[in-house]
Structure prediction request, 197 residues.
Amino acid sequence: MKLLYLIALALISVTTQVFAQTYMIDPNHTYPSFETDHMGISVWRGKFTKTQGTVTLDRAAKTGSLHVVIDTDSIDLGHQKLNQHVKTAEFLNVAKFPTATYQANSVEFDGDQPVAVKGELTLLGVTKPVTLTINKFKCILHPMLKREVCGADASAQFRRTDFGMTKYSPPFDPMIKLAIQVEAIVQDGDQQKEEGM
Prediction:
C-alpha cells in the first residue's frame, strides 16, 4: 500500500512538471495601452513601452498565474509635453512610484482556452482588484525562436480615482479602459519538458 502511495505521488509530481509551464513576457511585443477622457470632448490614447513579467499556465489543471511590472516612466501619449505632465505628482507620480504591478493567481478557462484573469493592480501604492478579459489567445511554435510562444489580446477597465488619482475628476471621466497586447515565450526547462512529451 505504501509503495502504491509513493507511485501515485510520483505520477502527480511528473504530471505537474509536464503541464505547468512558465513563460517570460516578451517586452518587444507587449504594450499595455489605454484610453482616457479629455473633458468629455475627446479620447486620449497612450501606452507604456516598457513591461516585464512572467506567466505560468497549467492547461491540464486549468490554473495559472501572472506577474507583470510596468515602468510608469515609459508612458507615451504621442505628445511630449503631456507625457511629462502625467508623470508628475498630479497623476502617475513616477518619482515616487516608478512601477505599477499586476499580480494574479486565478485564471479562468473555457475548455482549453484561458478567458479571464482575476488579479490585483497596484498603482500609486494602492492595490485594487482588476479583472482582465482575454479576447484572444493562441500559442504557436515560433518559426525563428523554435520555441512555443503564446500571445493574447486582453481588456479591462478601472477608475483612476480608486487609486487616488483624483486630479481633474470631475470634469474628466475617471474611467480608464485598457487594451493589452502580450506575447510570452516558454522558458528552456518548460520547452524541454514539452518536447519530451
User: Anything to note?
Assistant: DSSP finds three helices and eleven strands in the chain. Confidence is low (pLDDT under 50) at residues 2-17, 191-197. The longest helix spans residues 2-19.
